[in-house]
Amino acid sequence: MAPRHQAPRGTRDLLPGDIERWQWAEARSRGVMERYGYREIRTPLFEDYELFARTSGDSSDVVQKEMYRFKDLGDRDLALRPENTAGVCRAYLEHGLASKGRVHRLWYAGPMFRYGRPQKGRYRQFWQIGAEVIGTPAPGADVEMIALFVDIFDAWGITGLTVAVNSVGTPESRRAYGDALREWLAPVRDRLGADSQRRLETNPLRVLDTKVPDEIALLRGDGWPEPSGVARPSAWPPPMPHLIDVLDPESRAHFDAVRHGLETLGIAYEVDHGLVRGLDYYTRTAFEVHDRSLGAQSALGGGGRYDGLIQELGGPATPGVGFSIGLDRSLLVMEERGLGPTGGAVQVYVAAMDTTRDPAAVLARTLRRSYAVELDPEARGLSAQMKAADKSGARLLVLVGEEEWAKGGVVVRDLRGGEQEFVMKDRIEDTLRARLGATNHGAQG
């Protein structure tokens, strides 16, 4: 019989067996953030629709196609958050964080929502881990952000990634580049889809962010028709103009300083002239991390500088830079590479005889102060408990046998190797500590 209800399309349930890898990844990233001096912030899952429409840009796919927008019972125009930088900046202004220090380093983790086409590793409810530095225009902040970005992937064990960087300059340099891009694409304008033709008029840089394979080929210079009515230029198609070539001197110097900083830290990167990011608030530095083995949809995360965003929200001119990592796709990479936590959630299984169930329950509660412990609640026989211990994934079995308990101890068995020993009651925790380590289970990475 089919279930009456299922998770909505584009969402999924995270079940035991999967959630441990998520918790492990979140704990590892939290540790990296804290070592860089970042503090966690949590913002609402929904905000005023205008917050996202104003910051993301009217021509962006987020606003045009992907926003979960709704009216509440008070007729307020709201939206589920499609990203979190706007919400963090709103909170920064609302709570007057500028008065509590010039530079703020913040990080977040949680679900975002976009109405996209579900596919492997991409969902309509998806998780992001991100960070923001608000209050400094220095290129060193961009370098720190990219280094933090890379170090999180290193903490997860994901190697062989490509760091791509570009500069999207100022609004003025982007307008100049937009004119050059329109002129360059004029010979193939009719080969672009309706969306890209619209973007070419309203925001030409959005064309570079296309996901349509035929349009990606055109941007590479493939599939251009031969020119008609004129002599064929020596270089055809003409090379795509690069935004970096029309940058203002300050943006160019900023980008050069970022590149120098990355080289100083030994962070390998490539300049990607087509990297513009999908939201309109970015200025100057833009960056992404790619796993090229994933094919066309290879980006695992990205970010950039947004020096005009807080002013756009009604605050004073305040520079900022940030990134977000797609946790769903990153975890898919970890799973495919066999990365993540080792062992099961249960560390110790306590088994008892009929006559020792009470002391076994007391012992299990004591051990749970430090370890993940499972105790059979059904008063089953010892054979059934032993089978359950094997299935639990526990590393150790603590058997509270009648005879052993009367002698003042228990049997501790290694469920992987099979070795066992008699341990006195006052030595049980020392024995487990020697076998499993000294940290409590909630803090283990």
From TrEMBL:
SUPFAM superfamilies: Class II aaRS ABD-related (SSF52954), Class II aaRS and biotin synthetases (SSF55681). It comes from the Bacteria. L-histidine binds at residues 83-85, 114, 128, 132, 277, 281-282. It is found in: Cytoplasm. Its EC number is 6.1.1.21. Gene3D superfamilies: Anticodon-binding domain, Bira Bifunctional Protein, Domain 2. It is an enzyme of class 6 (ligase). Pfam families: HGTP_anticodon, tRNA-synt_His. GO terms for molecular function: ATP binding; histidine-tRNA ligase activity. It catalyses: tRNA(His) + L-histidine + ATP = L-histidyl-tRNA(His) + AMP + diphosphate + H(+). Residues 1-334 form the Aminoacyl-transfer RNA synthetases class-II family profile domain. GO terms for biological process: histidyl-tRNA aminoacylation. PROSITE patterns: AA_TRNA_LIGASE_II. Its main location: cytoplasm. Keywords: Aminoacyl-tRNA synthetase, ATP-binding, Cytoplasm, Ligase, Nucleotide-binding, Protein biosynthesis. GO terms for cellular component: cytoplasm. Homodimer. Belongs to the class-II aminoacyl-tRNA synthetase family. This is Histidine--tRNA ligase. It comes from Eiseniibacteriota bacterium.
